[in-house]
Design goal:
Layout lengths: L2 H30 L4 E2 L7 H12 L11 H6 L10 H16 L7 H23 L3 H14 L11 E7 L9 H9 L5 E4 L2 E7 L1 H33 L1
Antiparallel strand pairs: 1-4, 2-4, 3-4
GO biological process, one term: monoatomic ion transmembrane transport
Keywords: Cell membrane, Ion channel, Ion transport, Membrane, Transmembrane, Transmembrane helix, Transport
GO cellular component, one term: plasma membrane
């Protein structure tokens, strides 16, 4: 087998293996780490805070009041929950199929051409799935490394608010505490009778974005490598 062809197949296989690792890591994250981390009142014990996190994970979350409309319009408002898992799996599966196509083509130049088109189709598919420009998003995130841009372009919402109905069995508020809460300027939570508004960081979204960024790097490198090999195969 041609060494150049073998190297092409190796690059694509490495990218496909990377896809499998990403899918597994995203699927296991909620099981081995907190999928979201809510800022609990200081009077909550660790067990109570864990209960609040579990409660909010199973409920619909809303935008925090501190998020401006301009910022809200600039991010994809997607809550990563159980219903989003299949979308990620299908997205990565389609990308893997597109990268496998060149291995069923025999002419060398056609293999590289198919690989380049497969990479382009993978980017277009991720644009459709994530409802944003995947290529621009990845480039913007890497630009932040040297530009120190404070405004991050997220494809998944990083922070949400949860209306937590506190069980009276583990948290009671006397008159003095109630007055303190009403006048509190603590941005971590607000008190409304028996409902707390907790600010929750979606750690699973941050992890998922990191995995998609790794995928972006893999697709870019695979596309550039196969395009270079295509040019060499055509003009040699």
């Amino acid at each position: 087998m041609d060494k150049s062809l073998l190297s092409c197949m190796t690059v694509n296989k490495i990218t496909i293996s990377l896809l499998i690792v990403l899918v597994v890591s995203i699927a296991l994250f909620p099981l081995v780490w907190k999928p979201l981390d809510c800022k609990c009142p200081t009077k909550f014990s660790e067990e109570n805070c864990q209960y609040a996190n579990a409660y909010c994970w199973t409920r619909d979350l809303r935008d925090t009041d501190s998020v401006g409309q301009a910022w809200r319009d600039s991010v994809e408002n997607v809550q990563f929950g159980q219903e989003f898992g299949p979308r990620v799996f299908v997205s990565f599966f389609v990308v893997a199929v597109l990268l496998l196509l060149p291995h069923y083509i025999k002419p060398e130049s056609t293999i590289y051409l198919t690989a380049v088109f497969g990479t382009i189709l993978a980017f277009l598919w991720l644009d459709f799935t994530l409802q944003t420009s995947f290529a621009k998003w990845g480039w913007h995130r890497f630009q932040q490394i040297w530009t120190h841009d404070s405004k991050t372009w997220h494809i998944f919402t990083q922070e949400k608010a949860c209306n937590f109905k506190e069980p009276a069995v583990f948290y009671t508020v006397n008159a003095e505490d109630h007055e303190h809460t009403e006048n509190s300027e603590d941005p971590e939570y607000t008190k409304n009778v028996d409902v707390l508004t907790l600010q929750c960081a979606l750690t699973v979204n941050a992890w998922s974005e990191g995995m998609f960024l790794v995928l972006w790097v893999g697709l870019v490198l695979s596309g550039l490598f196969n395009f270079r090999k295509l040019v060499i195969a055509v003009f040699k």
